[in-house]
Amino acid sequence: MVEADQKPHAIFVAYPLQGHVIPSVHLAIKLASKGFIITFINTHSIHHQTTKAQANADQDIFTAVRQSGLDIRYTTVSDGLPVEFDRSLNHDQFMAALLHVFSAHVEEAVAKIVRSSEVPPVSCLIADTFFVWPSKVAKKFGLKYISYWTEAALVFSLYYHVDLLRVNGHFGCHDSREDKIDYIPGVRSIDPKDMTSYLQESDTSVCHQIIFTSFKDVRGADFVLCNTIQELEPETVSALQAKMPFYAVGPIFPTGFTKSTVATSLWPESDCTSWLNTKPHGSVLYVSFGSYAHVTKNDLIEIAHGLSLSKVNFVWVLRPDIVSSDDEDPLPVGFKEEIHDRAMIIPWCCQIQVLTHQAIGGFLTHCGWNSILESLWCEVPLMCFPLLTDQFTNRRLVVDDWKIGD
Ligand code: UDX
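# uridine-5'-diphosphate-xylopyranose complex -> structure
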């Protein structure tokens, strides 16, 4: 048995978005189960939303796993904005705070942990690749930097080679080339319309600044851990491995692919199990567009009409801010009454619990990377409706490369 003072101690900073917090919590648990001491840092805002979403929430989300013997400590820092600030409605301000202000708060927290005589010495910093500061902060405190990429290796490769895209005229000019991109190492050929949404835009935003800066910073990482599966992206992973210590460590899921004892949902979960139990095997379509992207009101209405006409049973996760947090009831008038006996419309659920239910026969998805990994695991076929960011590139993997969706 390794003594506590001999165990490696890592500070783990999760990106404050739902689709990043979930795989970060589960990587932290995996590392702790292999003998790491982890100090996990969430933002005040993520912590507040997570605990508000649970009945009987514990102030320390890791209490249960610590009781099971893992050494995961927990702390929170400000992201620079008040806890109650509506980050969904004011997305660019939120991103600007992450770009410009967050690092000062993290640095203060890291300094406190590293200099404390009451905790075991810290040897590394694990942080999401999208942060713009980790290699600098790690260097300042003499820590190894382990960068955690929670998306596909293909997406990492596109961002990593953004200068190549620029030089070749596929990105960064007003009339970008529309022919296929065939010069990125490890990427056989990709249509520009399958690049991430940011790489298809000619005007740059705060998100572009985050991508450009973080992909400079990641060049200073000692290791990159990617939540993908080597066999599913072999050429891209190998090409990246030729450039840097890049490891495909996925799929990162809760232990046993069952509902986690660590609370990670930002919205209260509705339980669909009893309702699903009444439905025949493979008869229910699960519909969800993840935690981050918005759907336009027109698209939402079209989807509602499609679901209505299809006559299939469905579970539809409609986040309270799915169109906008200032539009609370975007569904067409009469829709809920029309479909009430064959559908459940809920604000959020435990998705892995739903996907593992035998009544589920398909998933209409926005192609978030976690959703794709989870569906692959459960062998649920996908219908793809990408909305933003990496989702277009993920669609290409699902439909064109792996042929597990449409
Ligand atoms: C966005 C990106 O699109 C994604 O590719 C990136 O990796 C993270 O940011 P998001 O919209 O959050 O992702 O989607 P996704 O990656 O699918 O993650 C959503 C997570 O929330 C999944 O783990 C899913 O199981 C969970 N979820 C979703 C629930 O637990 N309940 C729900 O009702 C909906």
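# post-check
Residues 244 and 379 are 32 Å apart (CA to CA).
Residues 18-33 form the longest helix (16 residues).
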